[in-house]
Specification:
By secondary structure, the protein is an alpha+beta fold. It has two domains: about 1-55; about 70-205, Metal Binding Protein, Guanine Nucleotide Exchange Factor, Chain A (Beta Complex), CATH 2.170.150. It has helices at about 1-25, 40-55, 60-70, 70-75, and strands at about 100, 105-110, 115, 125, 135-140, 145-150, 155-160, 170-175, 180-185. The strands form two sheets. A six-stranded antiparallel β-sheet has the order 3-4-8-7-6-5, with no helix packed on it. It has a three-stranded antiparallel β-sheet with strand order 2-1-9, with no helix packed on it. The model is unreliable at about 15-50, about 190-200 and about 200-225 (pLDDT under 50).
Amino acid sequence: MTRSLCGRFALLLAGVFCIVSASTAVLGQNPFGTSPDSGNRVESSRDSKSAAKEPERIFRTNEEWQKLLTPEQFMVTRMKATEQPFSGKYASGHFKGTFVCVCCGAKLFDASNKFESGTGWPSFWRPVSEKALDTAMDYSEPAEARVEVTCRRCGAHLGHVFQDGPPPTGLRYCMNSVALSLESEQGVPTPSRKSSRTPASKSTRKGKPSNGDIATKKPGKQAEATEPKF
């Protein structure tokens, strides 16, 4: 009796195995119609694309940067000075194209995201990508803690970001014109005159409209500076 039951059970298992094998042969190796490692390839592809978006870092000494930049560009981007308000060529007006880092050419801001803040510096409500910029608290001014904005690719000082911008982000990226270069929509730099102004000095790094990165129209209560959240 026991042998008979075992035999029947073995035949049942054999039948199930045959059915599963036949189904696999018809549907393929994966019931979802993809190869077993396709998921790995997709993840690998995503990782590759993510890595491609992360800018390759550029490291140079100040001596090397001095040879590549004008005195004013060097003072602002490498020594963290601020240009005089309303002196930059991008301080006001509307442009087409992409603003890139004057030091390394990394894409930073789309011209369509520029707005008139009335501060005397070009202002944007968002960057082309959160991967393009780095931010850090700046306590260089005792009266006001600010959030510094730098180019992630080369570390160039660009300006500061404040939480008094327009919707939808509520942010105001207050940049130095001299730290930016405008590329046309075809990716060709737009013609520009070489600046004849004297280099910016560190003494211009105040947080008021007459000499620093702050809006002319202040909110009723000054909010404590915090790093922006994307």
